[in-house]
Amino acid sequence: MIPFSILDLSPIVEGGTAAQALARSLDLARHAEKWGYLRFWVAEHHNMPGIASAATAVVIGHVAAGTKTLRVGSGGIMLPNHAPLAVAEQFGTLESLFPGRIDLGLGRAPGTDPVAARALRRGRTETADTFPQDVMELQAYFRPSAPGQALRAVPGAGLTVPIWLLGSNLFSAQLAAAFGLPFAFASHFAPDLLGEALEVYRNEFRPSASLGKPYAMAAIAAYAADTDAQALRLFTSLQQSFVNLRRGTPGPLPPPVDSMEGRWSDFERAGVTQAFREAIVGSPATVKRGIAEFVRRTHVDELMVTAAIFGHEARLKSFEIVAQSRSAD
């Protein structure tokens, strides 16, 4: 079976705090290390009351310091929000502190609303349109410094920090292929172009100094419990949260409910169903079958799972069940 990894947004639950969310992320990472997960990535989102991972590099350091072998990284850093030099220095520092364990996943979306994006950028001209140039600049900072070089990343220069390109469209797939970089597709919330993006990436891939052949990862939501009904109930927290986001009223992660009836319109229900159609929700047997079918259909080299679950113990149990689904029958 292919490697499994985790994408975590450090969810802040209703009645909870960011401090609790970050502590629970570290606890999950420690369990994930024991369960055999390969990576633990955190995502950059801003101005979101239900997400505690805005200072992504800081959270990566927190998780890496509390684990021993788990690869820890960004899924991802939203590069238009940052100067490439600053990112190189941050991740050069992380690699210096935790050698051989740091990944740098890059996205070109803002990871926030337009108001917060303006506040983050403060007049900087970088946008999604300059993403390819920004990636190349960032790559250059990790190369060994040349004599007389006027600008260098310290730490950063000469360090090996794997760069991934993330996306939910064909542009990111094409760019990852052209640069010879590993590619991660966001099918956990935007599955429409999954098959086409993987095909484009594999067909157009050009080997690079860092990667000789295509390496594709896909992210999916996975909610597991003792029974299908229990897992479906856990899943309602994400459904409610997504509806609130679409209504323009994001907030902390709500507790699960017995039924979504009366909590969404038919249009909202259709939107949630579409966004999470690749989600795997159910008992251990259901999850095992669902993951096997997804991997067979997509031929991904690695699977990244995510789950915004209200109760911490239920969250741990869900990820443990997913890890156990890797075992042979």
Task: Walk me through this protein's architecture.
- The chain has an eight-stranded parallel β-barrel with strand order 1-2-3-4-5-6-7-9, surrounded by eight helices.
- The chain has one domain: Alpha-Beta Barrel (TIM Barrel), CATH 3.20.20.30.
- Helix 1 packs parallel to helix 11.
- It is of the alpha/beta class and 329 residues long.
- 43% of the residues lie in helices and 15% in strands.
Instruction: Report the average pLDDT across residues.
Output: 95
**Cα-atom radius of gyration:** 19 Å
State the CATH superfamily name: Luciferase-like domain
Order of helices and strands: EHEHEHEHHEHEHEHHEHEH
Q: Which architecture does the CATH hierarchy give at level 2?
A: Alpha-Beta Barrel
Number of strands: 9
Sketch the major β-sheet. Answer: 8 strands, parallel, barrel
Overall outline: globular
CATH class: Alpha Beta
Spans where pLDDT lies below 50 across 5 or more residues: none
Strand order of the largest sheet: 1-2-3-4-5-6-7-9
- For the termini, the CA-CA separation is 11 Å
* Helix run count: 11
List the defining traits of the structure above.
9 strands, single chain, alpha/beta, TIM Barrel, 15% strand, 329 residues, eight-stranded parallel barrel, globular
Draw up the topology in text.
Layout: E1 4-8, H1 18-35, E2 39-42, H2 56-65, E3 71-78, H3 84-97, E4 102-107, H4 114-121, H5 131-142, E5 163-167, H6 170-179, E6 183-185, H7 194-204, E7 216-224, H8 228-246, H9 266-275, E8 280-282, H10 284-298, E9 302-306, H11 312-324
Parallel strand pairs: 1-2, 1-9, 2-3, 3-4, 4-5, 5-6, 6-7, 7-8, 7-9
Helix pairs in contact: 1-11, 3-5, 6-7
